[in-house]
Structures are given as C-alpha cells and as structure tokens.
Amino acid sequence: AFEVLVIGGGPAGSAAAIYAARKGISTGIAAERFGGQVADTMGIENLISVPYTEGPKLVAAMEQHVNEYEVDIMNMQRAEKLIPAAQTGGLHEVKLANGGSLKARTVILSTGARWRQMGVPGEEEYRNKGVAYCPHCDGPLFKGKRVAVIGGGNSGVEAAIDLAGIVGHVTLIEFGEQMCADEVLQKKLRSLNNVKIITSGQTTEVVGKDGKVSGLNYTDRTTGEAHHVELEGVFVQIGLVPNTEWLKGDIELSQHGEIIVNDRNETSIPGVFAAGDATTVPYKQIVISMGEGSKAALSAFDFLIRNSAE
Ligand code: FAD
C-alpha cells in the first residue's frame, strides 16, 4: 500500500506527487493520461517565471521532475471507484478500469476537468486555431481582432468583459432568450461599446479559411434565420465539467460536480484530499493547480503523522 496515492497526472497531481515524495513517504500516481489538459495546450505564457512554453514541453518537464523522485508512475490507468477506509487512518482503496485496485493511507484526487464543447462542425477542427476555451490564457493572442464568446452565463459574460479590453470587438452569443449572468456583470457588459449581445442564438458552425477560424454561423432561434459573423476567434464558455463522475455518492461534490475542499484541501472523507480543476477552488489555471497540489500533499503528510499506522 502507498502512503500517498495521487489520482490524476496533470499539474495538480504532479505537484502533489513531488511534494509527497520529498517527505520520503511511499508515493504513487495513477493517471489516465499523464499531463492532463496541458497536453492539449499550445502556448503557455502565464506560468510565473516561465515567460513562454508549450503544452507538450511542460508535460515532459513535469514528468522529468516527478521522475527525480521515487514515485511509482502508473500511466494510462483510469480510476473507477473510491472505497474509503472503514476508519480514520485505515486504508482507502481505488479500483481501476483494468480490474486492478490500489490501496493507500491517503489519497489525493486531482482528476481535473474538461471544457464543455458546443459539438458543432468546425469546433474540433479549429481548436487552438481560433477556437479557444480559456480567456485568461488565450485572450492576448487575439489583440485587436474580432472574437465571439459563446455563452451568457457568469463565465461567458466575464470572458466577454475581459476580452473587450484586449480585442477589437466581441460578439456574445447566448442560446436562451436572456443571459443568465449576475446582473452587475450584464450591466458592465452592456456599458462596453465594442460588444454586441445576441440572445436566442444557436451557433451552428465554426467556419475557417487557410487553416484558421474566419467566421461563425448561428441561427436566430426566434425567427429561424441563419446569420454569419466574420471574426478571428471563438471563445466557448458553456461550462467546465469536472472529471468526478466516478466519485458521485462516495464524496461530497458541489452542484457543479466539483469536489468540495476546504483551505487545507481536505474533502468530506478523512485522509482523502483533492486539488486542482476537479475541486471547488476558483480560477482553473496551471499555476493554481500546482499550488493546490502541493498544499494537498502537505496536508496528507500532516494527516499521516497524526494518524500513525494501526
Ligand atoms: P488536468 O490538467 O485536467 O489533469 C487531470 C489528470 O487527471 C489527467 O492526467 C487525467 O488523465 C487524469 N484523470 C482524469 N480522470 C481520471 C480518472 N478517472 N482516473 C485516473 N486519472 C484521471 N492554464 C494556464 O494556467 N495557462 C494556460 O495557458 C492554459 N491554457 C489552456 C488551454 C487549453 C486548451 C485548456 C484545455 C486549458 C488551459 N489551461 C491553462 C488550464 C489548465 O490546463 C488547467 O487549469 C490545469 O491543467 C488543471 O490541472 P489539473 O491537474 O487540476 O487537471
């Protein structure tokens, strides 16, 4: 059995494994795909002290750093079920999709999240070629250009306000008859003169030319009329889905499916910690996930020294 078992090999999981291993305790990390969302990212410009890197390069660096320590890396292993210890300080069990199971005195859940996609033609084809999901990350790439934000919830309207200060023009497209973001955000958005708001708009296709996004088609759901908008970028803001379906019923989750953690990364189960995009911690970013993963490992270590082996 491990003293610390990390589930997930993104920035949060990598940081947790390094911090745990540096305490000299037996550490394992099981990940469906080492690297997580970073593996799907192009340029990264906001990892403090690294002015520019690229996703695959950062994944290689994270893996190399983890390998500096005695960490048992189990890549391509999907966790399917968590069976909490019968009593505090006992062994938790994680069942894997391959039929195996792992036991550990503490578990750190860092299974991350995925952006909800529109599922329209062109979205996948032009991903990272104009189709983006993270305004904090990719907003500056569209300086002075025209973009659309899909979604009029809090994240969509926040993204539109944020982008309006960087890009030339923002078209916000909301599927419903009205935006559902907080009124104070909607008011702010309406006050901006380079933003157009379209409600009852259903995006039907992302259109491209020469390998890049060149426009977007949408249907007005009240009239049925088809429209085309010329632009260079599309930010999809229709939700972030945490990879926590496998934990439902076993651990306390928020209404959005995020693992509820306190400021010590403790979950509702003693000895089970969580970090990164899969949790209720706001602002889903690499540097934040790394910090949270480190915190979770320190909390796990603290738990271990207080609950010595039976
Ligand atoms: P993830 O990176 O999502 O990693 C989750 C890990 O858990 C993966 O290894 C996954 O395979 C594994 N996993 C999931 N389910 C299971 C399971 N059941 N069993 C076992 N393993 C499982 N942030 C920035 O700071 N700067 C950027 O420039 C930036 N650009 C981005 C661009 C794109 C296209 C995307 C999608 C995200 C971007 N982000 C960026 C956000 C950033 O990638 C995330 O905040 C960060 O990766 C979250 O780290 P994490 O470790 O919590 O989760």
TrEMBL record:
Q: Which UniProt keywords apply?
A: Disulfide bond, FAD, Flavoprotein, NAD, NADP, Oxidoreductase, Redox-active center
Can you tell me which residues bind NAD(+)? 146-160
Q: According to its UniProt record, which cofactors does this protein need?
A: FAD
Covered range within the whole protein?
212 to 521 of 521
List the cysteine pairs that form cystine: C134-C137
What's the superkingdom here? Bacteria
Purpose: Serves to protect the cell against DNA damage by alkyl hydroperoxides. It can use either NADH or NADPH as electron donor for direct reduction of redox dyes or of alkyl hydroperoxides when combined with the AhpC protein.
Quote the record's cofactor note.
Binds 1 FAD per subunit.
Question: Keyword NAD, does the record have it?
Answer: yes
Q: Which residues are in the FAD/NAD(P)-binding domain?
A: 3-293
Per UniProt, what is one GO molecular function of this protein?
oxidoreductase activity, acting on a sulfur group of donors, NAD(P) as acceptor
Name of the protein in question: Alkyl hydroperoxide reductase subunit F
Describe, as the record does, how this protein assembles with itself and its partners.
Answer: Homodimer.
Q: Looking at the keywords, is NAD present?
A: yes
Query: Its Gene Ontology biological processes?
Result: response to reactive oxygen species
The record's similarity note reads: Belongs to the class-II pyridine nucleotide-disulfide oxidoreductase family.
List ligand-binding residues for FAD: 3-18, 267-277
